[in-house]
Write a structure and sequence with these properties.
There is one protein chain. By secondary structure, the protein is of the alpha+beta class. It folds into 2 domains: 103 residues, Rieske [2Fe-2S] iron-sulphur domain (Rieske Iron-sulfur Protein); 260 residues, Naphthalene 1,2-dioxygenase Alpha Subunit, Chain A, domain 1. The chain has 14 helices and 22 strands. A 9-stranded antiparallel sheet has the order 13-19-18-17-16-15-14-22-21, sandwiched between helices. A 4-stranded antiparallel sheet has the order 6-5-4-7, with no helix packed on it. It is globular, with a radius of gyration of 22 Å.
Length: 425
């Protein structure tokens, strides 16, 4: 076994060493010990709505296919012909009766099993093991409200336990749809790369401290239709460590009166009729960003997927979401508000990308080797059921993923108390 370049002293609750962001050797360990060892988001079932539909994705650097077979079952298999290694699907989305390798026409069924090979007469008896030459399936698959996760580790902890504390917020997000269902990516996808480490986007997806400074123009404009944003930095919102690296920042929580200012009356009544008043109002009043460690975040208008490419190179895909059964004009408003902040010419997203580039450049200043996460650490509190929390402009949410990061990088099992709490949630 090769020597580890990661050192436990490189990461502690209040700070990370810059080596975690710039070392190619540590990056390779992260792929192995994190992305190939825990649950990773691969897609949403609305992206493959019909038998034969597929989406290509990645678990770390491993290319995979999310597919739906003739019986409607979801599969996650390696996008790699078992003959000579070529990917069998080149497009991000598609529809196929089977997956055919372009090199030698090896053909695989939608569940990944090997169906046929090109020029079969060239093989002798015993040279082909059809049963053992299918596209390798991910050992574990789990899903919640249509969000599909997979793990390359057959011994990974239980998915329901893993996702446990995040379920409440995923419910809020999906219950904003009258049908309780959302569609992902059908109304647009933004893709971009930045010259920086993947963890910068992981931290930035729940960053409350920078908003008032880095996005001040956006805040001033947004306040015209959401007046509560005028007081963003003073709002009594919180950020929580949900366990297993997941975390959430509350952007705002509306009162009943503010709900009626924010949403059309007909839509409010539609949700109440569909879900009941309490469940509908919960969905209408909460706005938040939630990170599901290590590669995914759910924001108001999109699902964000983080793809690590190198220690100093990251790809981010933002899949816009729509609310099934909602009025067309409301879904159109979601598109326009998303464009306002996250689009290439938006008032928010480009600011962050520029900052991530500058962060990576700054990591080369070896005379200042520490990245700080100590804002609010002395005032951080714990809920009766054991969740760390702090004000939304502090850094509880940035500290949260690194408890799981350190556990995985150091090869430690999940804490029994954390498993019990997540399961209870």
């Amino acid at each position: 076994m090769s020597e580890s370049h990661y050192r436990p002293e490189y990461s502690r609750p209040e700070a990370n060493h810059a080596e975690l962001y710039r070392s190619p050797a540590i990056f390779e360990e992260e792929l192995d010990k994190i992305f190939h060892a825990t649950w990773v988001y691969v897609g949403h079932d609305s992206e493959v709505p019909n038998p034969g539909d597929y989406k290509t994705s990645f678990i770390g650097r491993v290319p995979v296919i999310l597919s739906r077979d003739e019986a409607g079952r979801i599969h996650v298999v390696a996008n790699r012909c078992t003959h000579r290694g070529a990917t069998v699907c080149a497009r991000e989305f598609g529809h196929a009766d089977s997956f055919v390798c372009p090199y030698h026409a090896w053909t695989f069924r939608l569940d990944g099993s090997l169906e046929a090979v090109g020029l079969p007469r060239g093989y002798n008896d015993g040279e082909l093991d059809f049963a053992g030459l299918g596209l390798p399936a991910a050992p574990r698959i789990g899903s919640y409200r249509g969000f599909v996760f997979a793990s390359l580790n057959p011994d990974v902890h239980d998915f329901d336990t893993h996702i446990g504390r995040a379920k409440k917020y995923i419910d809020y997000y999906c219950d904003l749809s009258p049908s309780g269902q959302i569609t992902v990516g059908r109304t647009g996808i933004y893709k971009h790369r930045y010259r920086g480490n993947w963890k910068a986007q992981l931290e930035g997806s729940v960053e409350g401290y920078h908003v008032w400074h880095n996005h001040r123009t956006a805040i001033d404009i947004m306040a015209k239709w959401v007046p509560v944003m005028k007081q963003y930095q003073n709002l009594p919102m919180k950020a929580y460590d949900l366990g297993f690296g997941h975390n959430i920042i509350e952007n705002y929580t509306l009162t009943d009166a503010q709900v009626h200012e924010r949403w059309p009356a007909e839509f409010i009544e539609q949700l109440i009729a569909a879900h009941g008043r309490e469940r509908a109002m919960d969905a209408l009043r909460h706005r938040f960003n939630i990170v599901l460690f290590p590669n995914m975040a759910i924001l108001e208008y999109h699902v964000r997927v983080i793809r690590p490419l190198a220690a100093d190179r990251t790809e981010v895909r933002q899949y816009h979401t729509s609310l099934s059964g909602a009025p067309a004009e409301l879904n159109l408003r979601r598109v326009r508000e998303h464009e306002f902040f996250y689009g290439p010419g938006g008032f928010g997203g480009p600011d962050d990308l520029a900052t991530f580039d500058r962060i990576q450049q700054g990591m080369e200043a070896y005379t200042a080797p520490w990245v700080l996460f100590n804002r609010g650490i002395k005032s951080e509190q714990i809920t009766p059921d054991g969740l760390r929390y702090g004000h939304h402009t502090q850094e509880t949410q940035q500290r949260a993923p690194y408890y799981e990061y350190r556990r995985l990088m150091e090869g430690r099992p999940p804490a029994p108390s954390r498993i019990r709490l997540a399961a209870a949630g």
